[in-house]
């Protein structure tokens, strides 16, 4: 307080005259009324924070070693070349540094880049590494020989480290481009079909996706062995290609991979026997259909990763045929000693000699077309392999290739031969920094702490690092004296030359000046100033190969903070030491950190990650480490990093493209001049994968949250308005006469219609108009709102009696089983005996499914038509919600319910409800908030809110107790971007094949317009009426 009245002169010029207020030299400067006046090199200046010229996401560096990766997982537009760690590679006799000429793409790479496959699903410790893409390559080894090989990862690069055992010399008759199509597809095929599947000459085999790389390789191997081959493709062009490439294949050998019709083809051609071996890459209900194609004693080889990583159920009855199921993870063999490796190597060598192994068709992209290559392969249009050409082949003779560089984003890596010293390294930030240094290549770490290892977490970190082969030592030597600093660096030098010194030490003694003492100042300055001073002096003599001299300063030094004059002084002194080092041509960097989240002083003393400190928010530790990478590459001695509390709207820092260009890029549109501004994204060919990517991009980079249907209806004209600051017109808001807003959730899953009762009063409702009541009726189960009103347009088009089941206050809500039993008794008042036809929409699909099981238990025949829902549909939407805290669950449901009728501060209301003691209190408060904002009585609103929550809980907990045996059809909304699998998980709980009927529209719009008639037609086919 009062600091605005202070004026300071900081004289860093030894030849300057003695300071005096009467001196004309100083008087002239002070008249400028600067708070800080700095004299340095005979020049006056002041301290200011200037924005750093950041190029952290730009390819500004030309490097020899680089790899391809996405900067943002799931965003193909963020695919970039990034500087790699192989600068420090040294031959060890166990591996070979190879130069990559061609880097093939595999579906694992596509799944990783698009976010469909989590890194945790990869074998070994790959999930913890940055460079994880690439499984194979062709190029030259360290002796200049032409080779092709497989690696566990990191071959989508300019150079890579390969296991010599999994390298094959390229025959002279093949180019490196041709050779690049060989390793993974044939390695996978031999491993799956021969090593694990034990395929024998004369047996039969089903190979899915036959036009793909593995498909073609497997067909070639199987035909070479004299086996009967069946395969599937997704287009006529691919069918024609296979028939031309493999004349032995006829139309009766080739099925459709887009549906499950191949099952009938296989059973017909094998006369009901099935096939001996299946090589499967299809997912969901197509996987289940494939399993049913196995013959007695058959072997099922799964090379797809979707169902494996999603832990999809298989069903044990498959093993009643004495079958076996094999998960084929070729990448799990790479980099390990495995008994199957020699066999694969032998089979590959034999296949090359015999001619069974031959190059595949391919399409080649150059090194600057990585995004185009990924998008092309993701589209599924390719036949054979997709290759990235890194460099051109010079000759087919042996030669050591000349060095080639690519433009890449710079990264900081540590020299594995050097030692990195962290003063205060056992603190929260110190342990994180040590982990980051190891992640970036360090293998020798010296951590200092006056008290040594004190906590279990510190001990755990050290044990983990040592288990990875990192040499970690903990020293209690203090660097606050000259002798201590010399001793510490000598200890570190015994491990290896000192490559980095990081001073993270900090002690706080905060107080206003009138309460400060000399002892407090010494306590604060000694670990910072004295350590920095003595380490500076000692390192000049004992660390001649030093790359980094880094001290952790604070924004309280650069900006000032009340009560921290001593802390500011200590940090300022360290900064001046770094400036002096840089002037002498030595490394020196002081980082003024703001508040740090997750670990350290702020978390320990002031609260959580959202604690506001002086207009700033704590910076998350991952962000700090990413910032460290930037700081270690720039030339300034003093830098600063803070997170402003006020969030900036509009395009984020990661958004270099305009919103229109970003969306056009995802859609593959090259020139917007030829695109109509009124054409919707749906009209322009947006599929669900593109829709998901556009949704993520708008939310991440432009702070816009739109539903799937709103994205589909967007036009480039509207995108232009949004880019200019216009507000999005959403389909989820409509004004009604009483001044209330009727809301639809962002994904359209819930919508209360204000024109009908919010709480139905009749359970069984006759929805028919003029139909023949002698015909067998159909029963329709309500969505989660409880009313069947939204299904009336469908009922009007059904040519048999239709009865709707509605949830009233009389219905039991303890479980789906109880509710289904209640509804079964209701429908028996209209139709005493089966067969029954049930329709369930959304939540109602869950209830209808259980009704079907209960009716079958009673000996009745049942047909189910589920409209965009299943037994697990609601649970799919609630799985990411916080479980276990009943107060939070109840409050979240009520806030969602309230928000359907009235705009509220959701976070505030959520907190208000969560602290209440009981469900009754929360329900009463929710009713009170909505009182007068709906056309309903408070009693009905209260009943509806309670019913809504009870239905959520019941559906979330529901697990079918039996398998449904009857006919079942699922109508899916194409624009409902829900992660529930191709058949919404029904295949695992149904005995018969689930017939999936995709229809245009979203969760709501499929019950409107032309699609209603399509649903009615589907129903009429089910019940046998044209």
UniProtKB/TrEMBL annotation:
Pfam families: ADH_zinc_N_2, FAS_pseudo-KR, KR, PP-binding, Thioesterase. CDD domains: enoyl_red (cd05195), KR_1_FAS_SDR_x (cd08954). InterPro entries: AB_hydrolase_fold, ACP-like_sf, ER, FAS_pseudo-KR, GroES-like_sf, KR_dom, NAD(P)-bd_dom_sf, PKS_KR. Gene3D superfamilies: ACP-like, alpha/beta hydrolase, Fatty acid synthase, domain 2, Medium-chain alcohol dehydrogenases, catalytic domain, NAD(P)-binding Rossmann-like Domain. One of its GO terms (molecular function) is phosphopantetheine binding. Residues 653-730 form the Carrier domain. Its EC number is 2.3.1.85, 3.1.2.14. Keywords: Fatty acid biosynthesis, Fatty acid metabolism, Lipid biosynthesis, Lipid metabolism, Multifunctional enzyme, NADP, Oxidoreductase, Phosphopantetheine, Phosphoprotein, Transferase. The keyword NADP applies. It catalyses: acetyl-CoA + n malonyl-CoA + 2n NADPH + 2n H(+) = a long-chain fatty acid + (n+1) CoA + n CO2 + 2n NADP(+). GO terms for biological process: fatty acid biosynthetic process. This is Fatty acid synthase.
